[in-house]
Task: structure prediction
Amino acid sequence: MAPLKRSLTALERSESKDYLERDSQGNNSQFAWVENLLPVKDKALTEELDKEIWDRLSSRYLENMWLAVPDIVDWSQVTGFSYAPSSPEIHSESNLDLAKFLSTLRDDATLETVKRKEILMLLASGVPAQRFSAFKCIYAEVKKHTDLFILHVGTWFRVKASFQHAVENYFNFLPRKQFAPPFVEYDHAGEGAYNEAVCAESSQTHGMLDRQLVKFGGTYDKIEVCDILKAPPEGSPKGIEFIHVKRGRSSANLSHLFSQGLVASTLLVRESNFVAEVNKQLVNLDLPKLPNKFSAIGNEVVFAIIHGPVGTKLDIPFFSKVTLQNCGKSISAFGYSVSLMHIPESDNHIAAVAAKAAEKKAAKKKAVKK
Result:
C-alpha cells in the first residue's frame, strides 16, 4: 500500500500548478516562466538542433552555453568536480567549466561521446561522488530565424514567442547607466581589485562594500548590501546608488548578481536592523548614514556587468534576462529605479587573456606529443 500511496502522491505533485501561485506581495511566481517553454517533439528538428550544438562545441564557439548541475544540490557538501572518472581527486576542478570539459575530449569525439561521458561532483569526505550525464549538464541557447530554443537537462525547448519578446523588451528598454569616471575599463586581477580601484579614485562619494557581509541571520544569513555604494554630494537632490558588479556573462553568475540585488533591496526597506548594520559600515567609510526608516523612492539599484571591449553592445544569456526581469520588477515595486551599466574590458586585458589561453593550448599539445 505504501508504494501505491507514494506513486499517487508523485502523480499529484507532477500535475500540481502551485508553483505558479503569486507571492505574499502579489508578484508572479519566480518559476512561472517555465510555462513558456514548450518541449520540442519533432525528431528532425531535435537532430538539427543537436547538430547545431555540436558544431559550436567542436569549434569552441561557446557563446550562450555553459555547464550547470542538473539537480538540486547541497552546495555545503560539494568539494569540486571532475571530468576524469578514473582519477577524479587528482583532476578535480573547483567549478564547472565548459571549455575545460571540452579540452578532455579526444580529437575524434562526437556528440554521442559527450552523451556517454559523465561529470563527477565530488562531495565531502566519505560520501561517494555523484555522477551526471555530461550532456545533461550542458545548457545552451540557439536562435533559428525568430525562434529561440533552450537546451535544458538534455531536452530541447522552444520559447514561446510572446514570452521571448516580453523578456527581450524589458532588457532592451531598461535604462543604461553612463560609463564614466571613477569607473574605468577593466584591467585588474579580479572584481574585488576593480571595485577597490573605483572607490579609491572617488572615496568621498563611493564606498567599497564588496565582501563586507552583514550577519543578519534567518533565511539570508550573510548578505552584501552592494559592491559599491555611491552617496550623492551633500545638498544634492539625487538619491543613493547601490551598485552590484559582476564580471562575465555566465548565466549562473549573473542570476546570482540579480538575486543578490533583490535580497539586499528587500532587506533595506523591510528590516531596520539590517539598515543599522549597513550604517555601521558607512560610518567606517566616512559616508552619510541611511535613514533608520529607509525608503526606496528616489534611490537606484545599478547592475554593472564587466564584459567585452569598448564599443560592444551589452548582451546577456536569455535565462539571465528572465532572472533580471523577475528581480528588476520586484525591486522597482519597492520604489527603486533599476538600471544596467556596461563596464568594458581594456584592450591590454583582452590581449593578455587571449595570450594565456594560447599558451595553455600550446602546452597541452606539447604534452600530448610527448
